[in-house]
Amino acid sequence: xxVYKDEERAxxxxxxxxxxxxxxxxxxxxxxxxxxxxxxxxxxxxxxxxGANLQMTFKDFVDVYKRDRGPKLKEHTWENKDNLIKxxxxxxxxxxxxxxxxxxxxxxxxxxxISYRNEKGEPYxxxxxxxxxxxxxxxxxxAVKFYDLKSNPxxxxxxxxxxxxxxxxxWIKAEYLKFIEEVKDKxxxxxxxxxxxxxxxxxxxxxxLTPKDINFDSKIIKITKSYQRxxxxxxxTDPKTPKSKREISMPDFLCEELKEFLSKLYGLxxxxxxxxxxxxxxxxxxxxxxxxxxxKRIRVHDLRHSHVSLLISMGFSAVSIxxxxxxxxxxxxxxxxxxxxxxxxxxAEMLNKEFTEV
Length: 358
Hints:
Elements: E1 3-6, E2 11-19, E3 25-33, H1 36-51, H2 58-69, H3 75-93, H4 103-115, H5 126-147, H6 153-157, H7 173-181, H8 187-199, H9 203-207, E4 214-215, E5 220-223, E6 226-230, E7 233-237, E8 246-249, H10 252-263, H11 279-293, H12 302-313, H13 318-325, H14 329-335, H15 341-356
Antiparallel strand pairs: 1-2, 2-3, 4-5, 5-8, 6-7
């Protein structure tokens, strides 16, 4: 180990050569270690990462995973993954060697996650448990695919949680109308919720809207981007999927409401964000309005589900709804199948007719 004592500073440092991923010989210098042991461990960790030696710890391999995958992901996507890794995986696996983790280790972690209860006695939701396991699986899959780990211990341990919630929260129209009356005192809240409910936008799509995105002559809202707040910065990205780029026709009443609203926002430029707050503000307003209206509290995102359920009740097909909200029709059919009861009845009636006519 190329570790040395810095007599002047009374600390330790390491200085050594290594070959980077291109094969180029490079020199690495790292100072400021309090003990020789810390310097030795840092050098070994660095060499393991450079050579992708799976004797490295889980914590070190996550750095490799981030180096490989991070640049290919949207910033907010990596932020979400990173938070899950730091809070739900690192406390249990950080110092374990990648090559030594077994399916039994994963099972023990799963049991801890299943047993967790917060201060209200509530467990993690099945969908959140699934998200944890999905992330852990992705890390080990990366090790198997690119760094010759023999097998993925998470796969051996079996599933955790559920990919979809058993029930989907939404408001029927009567509930929404009660709610919206209670937020009329704040115009920005009122018009934001009107757009979310009557047009089915994602929250990020709403918060990225500019006057330029709204054509009052054709009564169209054009979705081309999404807003995120990351590390105290406003970040504008592409929408969630390519399918999300779309044009949404507004009902006449909403078109007139927005036209009047924007006319009162003096100094607003065509490229300025209309709704200049974050998701946190909308969550607070959702709580306030639901409480005052005496309706159940749903998430802000559930207004999108409410929009879809309204369209289903009006008789629109999965294909037309999918185009409006930026989903594939097969996704609409899968996620909202329980809301298409009339189609199921029609199918049964037509099948019965086919049989009786034989």
